[in-house]
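A.,

Following up on our hallway conversation. Structure tokens first:
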């Protein structure tokens, strides 16, 4: 304990102290913020915090205020703290009554009273389901019994089906179909004997009969005037049994190509002479080609696109007298042949490569493709080519 030598007692009118003020019989400077307080009658004073005061003031937060209007509270006076309670209102499906919040139900389809206590429960659906005169809204359990196949003929709205000229009773024994015509039927499958017609238009099959017996099968048709002829052992299950027109071939990768017929070319009307000819000098490089006999001649050819086919591209090769490819202007157009006039440009391009048509051309009886090759020299030799088709 530190020395307290030098302390004086007595009655003083004033005290001038340049050092510490210590309380009690021991050296005790107190702590920061403490004050000298009375411990009561006949008791020494001591360091402490005066009753009714706080070291740091209390500041009101959001929705709180003091009745006195003061912004903070330090304990010096009695105060009342007021709280501002927000007003709540019910939204869609919510009801507020006093301090109680509950769901606002119609009591018809949904309620929150009854068998499940305070929980919401579904009573039924807004609208009813009716099956064969029996209604169901979900309010009670209900079982529906549906017919099990096969459905009796008497329960069908229409008890027969007409194919061609034959009326077939549903569910009856096998009937022979007469005069059945299939138009635009793709991917027909007939089971038991595996008839598979996967292709384009099937029109007017008269008196179709398919028979299968041990070791043999046959398809026959009406042999009348102009009708189909008899076909024996004709396999329709193969996808390769597509009969193309005589000048249409299946080329590389399955492409369909119609060969360019060289005899279809003519000189254009800019010259009054028939000035193209067939090269027949037995040269391996140019023999059999068409050579122009007048420079800058435009050579034109007509080509019919078969029915059910569409032209999508074309190629024509042109070489010089040495067999070296030369690039020449190549154009094509779809020309109206009867019933009207006019034409549609298909492409404007060059020779010696397959060129995609800008506008495709479907085969039609009133349309013909006009191909024009613009030559520049009498050494130009037209070798031929093809028109690419899709079916």
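Then the amino acids I'd put at each of the 391 positions:
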């Amino acid at each position: 304990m530190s020395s307290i030598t030098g302390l004086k007692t007595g009655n003083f009118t004033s005290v001038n102290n340049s050092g510490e003020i210590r309380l009690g019989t021991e050296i005790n400077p107190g702590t920061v913020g403490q004050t000298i307080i009375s411990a009561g009658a006949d008791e020494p004073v001591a360091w402490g915090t005066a009753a009714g005061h706080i070291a740091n003031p209390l500041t009101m937060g959001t929705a709180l205020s003091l009745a006195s209007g003061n912004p903070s509270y330090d304990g010096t006076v009695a105060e009342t703290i007021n709280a501002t309670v927000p007003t709540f209102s019910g939204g869609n499906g919510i009801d507020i009554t006093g301090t109680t919040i509950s769901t606002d139900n119609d009591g018809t389809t949904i309620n929150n009273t009854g068998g499940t206590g305070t929980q919401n429960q579904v009573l039924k659906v807004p609208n009813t389901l009716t099956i064969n005169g029996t209604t169901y809204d979900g309010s009670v359990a209900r079982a529906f019994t549906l017919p099990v196949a096969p459905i009796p003929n008497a329960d069908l709205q229409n008890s027969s089906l007409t194919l061609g000229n034959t009326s077939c009773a549903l569910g009856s024994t096998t009937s022979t179909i007469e005069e059945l015509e299939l138009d635009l039927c793709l991917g027909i499958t007939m089971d038991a004997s595996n008839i598979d017609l996967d292709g384009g238009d099937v029109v007017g099959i008269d008196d179709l009969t398919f028979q299968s017996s041990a070791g043999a099968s046959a398809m026959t048709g009406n042999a009348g005037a102009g009708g189909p002829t008899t076909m024996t052992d004709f396999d329709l299950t193969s996808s390769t049994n597509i009969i193309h027109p005589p000048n249409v071939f299946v080329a590389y990768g399955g492409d369909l190509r119609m060969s360019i017929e060289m005899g279809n070319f003519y000189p254009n009307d800019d010259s009054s002479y028939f000035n193209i000819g067939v090269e027949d000098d037995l040269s391996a490089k140019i023999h059999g080609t068409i050579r122009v006999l007048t420079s800058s001649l435009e050579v034109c050819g007509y080509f019919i696109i078969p029915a059910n086919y569409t032209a999508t591209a074309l190629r024509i090769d042109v070489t010089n007298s040495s067999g070296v490819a030369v690039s020449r202007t190549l154009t094509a157009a779809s020309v109206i042949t009867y019933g009207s006039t006019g034409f549609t440009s298909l492409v404007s391009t060059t020779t010696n490569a397959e060129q995609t048509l800008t506008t495709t051309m479907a085969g039609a009886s009133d349309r013909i493709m006009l191909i024009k090759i613009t030559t520049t020299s009498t050494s130009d030799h037209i070798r031929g080519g093809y028109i690419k088709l899709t079916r």
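The domain at 248-390 is CATH 2.60.120 (Jelly Rolls). Curious whether your intuition agrees with the design.

B.
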